[in-house]
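Study both lines:
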Amino acid sequence: MLKHLLSKIKSKIQLYFWWIKSYDANNTILSELSRNVAIAIGMKPFKKIRVIYRNDIINAAVIGFLCRTIVISQGIIDILTPDELKTVFLHEYAHCYEKHHLKLLLVSLAPSTGIIMLLYYFLMFIYIESEIISIILTVVSLMLLYIALQIFIKYLTRKFEERADIIVIKNLKEPKLYISTLQKIALKTSTKRANIWEKLFSSHPPVDKRIYKLYEYLK
C-alpha cells in the first residue's frame, strides 16, 4: 500500500517537473521552425531547444529567467506536422513577448513577503495565552493564505494561456490551423472530467474553452 502510494507521488512529481530530464536537441528542423517564428513575431530565436524523450508527455514550455530556452516533448513532436509545430513555438514565444514569466514571479514573491510580515505583526499585537494555540493559528493561517495565493497564481496562468492563444491567432495567416492543433493535442491528452479543485489548481484552461474563445475572437 505504502509502496503504491509513494510510486504515485513520485509519478505526480515527475509529471509536474516533466521538463527537468530534457536534453539539448541538435535538430535542424526544430531550429529552423523556431527561427522562422521568432522573425515573424519580431523576437530573438530561442538560444536553446531541449527535448524530453517521452512519448507519454504532450507538452512544451519556456524555461529560464531570460526566456531563452524552450523544452518540447517527443510526444508533441511525433503527433504534429511542421506547420502545427510552428503554432506551438509561436504560443511559447507569445508568453515571452508578454513577459508572463516575470509577471508570475512578481505576483509570487510580493504577496508572499507581505503575508509573512502581516502574520508576524498580527501575532505580536493580539493576546494569546497559549503558545500552542498561537503556533496552530500561525500554521493554519499560513496554509490558508498559501492556498489562496496558489489559486490566484493558477488563475493568472490560465489567463496568460488565453492571451498567448490570441497572439498566435493574430500572427497566423490561417488562424484555424492553431485551433486544429489544439484539438489534435486534446485528443492525445484527454482524461477524466476535472473536479472543482482540479480546475482551481490547473495552469491551463480546458481546451474546449480555449477553442470556444478563439472562435469568438475570430467572429
The longest helix spans residues 131-170.
